[in-house]
Amino acid sequence: MNHQKLAISVFLSVMLAVCLLVVRAYYLEQPLLEPAEVICAKSALRLVDTPNGALPETDQRWEQVTLPNDWLQKGYTRQHEWYRYDVVLNVPPNRLWGVLLEAVNLNAAVYLNGNLVGLNGRMDEPITHNFIHPLLFVIPNGLLQAGQNTVLIHVASFPPGHGFFGEFCLGPQQVLSQGRDKQLLFNLEIAKHISALSGVFAIVVFIMWLLRRQDSQYGWLAATLIFWSLHSLKFHVANVPISSLFWAWMLYATSIAASFSTYFFLFRFRDVRFKRLDRIVYSLWFVSTLSITILMLAQSLAFYRTAEIFFGISFLFLLYALSGVMSQAWRHYNLESFWLTVTVSFVVVIVVYDNLLITGVMQRAGGQLSFLAAPVLLGAFAFLVVRRFVNAIIEREELLRDLEKRTIAGAARIVDLEKESALSEQRETIMRDMHDGVGGHLVSVLAALDTPNVSAQIVKDVVHRALIDLRLMIDSLDIDARDLGILIGALRDRMQPILKSAGFNVAWRIGETPLLHNMTPHASLQVIRILQEALTNAIKHSGAQNITVRLYYDTTLTLHILEIEDDGQGITNPTSGGYGLTNMRRRAESINAVLEFTTANSKTGTKVVLSISHTQVGKNSNLN
To answer: Is the bond preceding 100 in cis, omega lying within 30 degrees of 0?
Structure first.
């Protein structure tokens, strides 16, 4: 089924190209001007003798030639040729007349009765390139006379032997202007617009390549369009600012470069690479450019033959790349394959037609159509590349949207996992605290019960301490952890009976402090444990009578300060300490707080200072 579709595409594209050629041939067969109004020359006399700078005489040797007169077909080798045409008028015209030269290569000058009528540019180097321009020269009043009038036309070409002289007409200037404009429309104006469009394509595709340099097909297509746009300058520039040989070098170099770059584009477009073949093509490109450059600088006319050979080689590689496109379309037929098949088939027909013109098999008067073939091919590929580029952008946007959805879902999942992890860590910490606190007290109860003659009061005291520990843990979960004053107030309610029964005078000086927004239940439990341990140490080891607990906020240091001070015997070496002091330091580190042991103001007591950062509290890992 795919093969049938491909065959239909090839047939349609070939028929389209053939129809174009038929229309072109019909157009060329139609006279530009009405014979009743003008005099059109179908033949003329060519000067046989070698021309010089002066006007030829009528008695020199002339030969009859038909028009158009193609120098390549006739084997002429001169750079300048002269043509003569005799016009017999019954009466002189009563309005302005002119001479219209339909096609010359490269330039021409017209003389009437020995007087120069018109010259459009230079006849010597660099010769003005009017190969695509129909030339219209207005005859001044009084030059045409009754009887015989001799028209001499001087045609200059470069290189020698490459000239061409088409049909020409004499008639009213206004009528000839209409014929010239009709011819310019197809031969020049369409070519100019197509080359300008190629330049715009080149800029667009080049910007696409800058945006996606990893896609080399955009860069090669941009290079092809740029080379073709430079080659198309021949449609825009007549008075070239450089020598004809240098100008020809530029045209051949850009056409060879366009063929090779199209080769690379076609393979990159298909995502196919042949490294060894690519190296061969790069080498041929370099050798061809270097060879024609050396011949151009040496002013050697062998430059033209060499340039044509290298252009033929580059075109063969281009055809090879196009055959790969057709082969891919044969295997996988889709929208891209349809466009490529139609375009390639159309271009092949046009190229064959132009080659028949270049080799002289067909008359050059028709003019080449490569200016139509190249933009059709490049335009089709530009369309497909832009289509791929747009599809890539759409796919990228869809992937980004999908990635954004996945990211949002993943972020929500991470938040849930963090919450679960935090809850798990808090459960683990609470369980560890229960094991170390309440669990330790219960173990003591069991050990006491196993002891003979244990007093009920001892067991009661141990159970009471276990109950206080359990209530402190519950308080750390229930009370707003951000308010240290409330936390310490809860501990005061639990510890005050014990402290009073032990004979201690405890002063609680709790000031107003700002909330700690990063405070967690775990962190609040560690603060309570540190304060509880400090009070327990004071009861057991200090021998003090008075204990002061202070809580205030240092606005200068932005710290919450908790101080526990007694008037006992003091601590000998606070840096060493036992398990209790070490455990207090670890608890402080676990909530990113600083714990210090100093001598009280009385020089005999102990002062424990816990400094809690307003912003850093709780940022360390939990207590292990």
So the answer is: no
Torsion of CA 318, 321, 325, 331, to 10 degrees: 150
What's the CA gap between 40 and 31, in Å, rounded? 9
* Residue 622 pLDDT grade (very low, low, confident, very high; cuts 50, 70, 90): very low
Reported as type and span, the H/E element at residue 551 is strand 546-554
DSSP for 190-251 reads HHHHHHHHHHHHHHHHHHHHHH-TT-HHHHHHHHHHHHHHHHGGGGT-SS-SS-HHHHHHHH
Partners of 548 in beta bridges:
507, 565
| Beta partners for residue 599, in sequence order | 606
Q: Which residues, listed in sequence order, are joined to residue 111 by a DSSP beta bridge?
A: 116, 152
Q: What is the pLDDT of residues 538-547, one digit of tens each?
A: 877 777 888 8
What is the 3-class SS of 416-432, one letter each residue?
HHHHHHHHHHHHHHHHH
Nearest-angstrom CA–CA distance, 228 and 255: 7
Reported as a pLDDT band with limits 50, 70 and 90, residue 491 is confident
Q: H-helix or E-strand containing 609? A: strand 606-613
Kind of pairing, strands 505-510 and 546-554?
parallel
Q: What are the backbone angles phi and psi of residue 99, rounded to the nearest 5°?
A: -125, 125
Packing angle of the helix pair 275-297, 244-269 (nearest 10 deg): 170
Asked if residues 381 and 318 have their Cβ atoms less than 8 Å apart, the reply is no
Place of tokens 């198309």: 232
pLDDT tens-digit profile of 370-388? 666 666 766 676 677 777 7
Q: Give the whole-angstrom CA distance, residue 221 versus residue 214.
A: 14
Distances (CA, A) of 346 to 28, 135, 194, 363, 365: 21, 32, 17, 21, 22
pLDDT tens-digit series, residues 267-313:
887 777 788 899 999 999 999 999 999 999 998 888 988 998 998 89
CA-wise closest residue to 382 among 195, 211, 202: 202
| Dihedral angle of Cα 587, 589, 591, 592, to the nearest 10 degrees | 160
**Sign (positive or negative) of CA dihedral 350, 356, 359, 362:** negative
Please give the span between the terminal C-alpha atoms of the chain, in angstroms, as a whole number.
Answer: 73
Contacts of 62 (CB under 8 A, 6+ apart): 45, 46, 47, 48, 84
Q: Please give the single-letter amino acid code of residue 317.
A: F
Q: For the chain, give the number of residues.
A: 624
Burial 21-50 (b: 16+ CB within 10 A, else e): eeebeeeeeeebbeeeebbbbeebbbbeee
Q: 361 phi and psi, to 5 degrees?
A: -65, -35
User: What gap in Å lies between CA 556 and CA 238, rounded to an integer?
Assistant: 85
Per-residue confidence (pLDDT) for residue 292, from 0 to 100? 94
Partners of 468 in the β-ladder:
none
What confidence score (pLDDT) does residue 208 get? 76
Instruction: Residue 549: name the closest of 586, 505, 588, 581 by CA.
Output: 505
User: pTM of the prediction?
Assistant: 0.58
Edge-to-edge strands, sheet with 69-70: 69-70, 164-165, 104-105
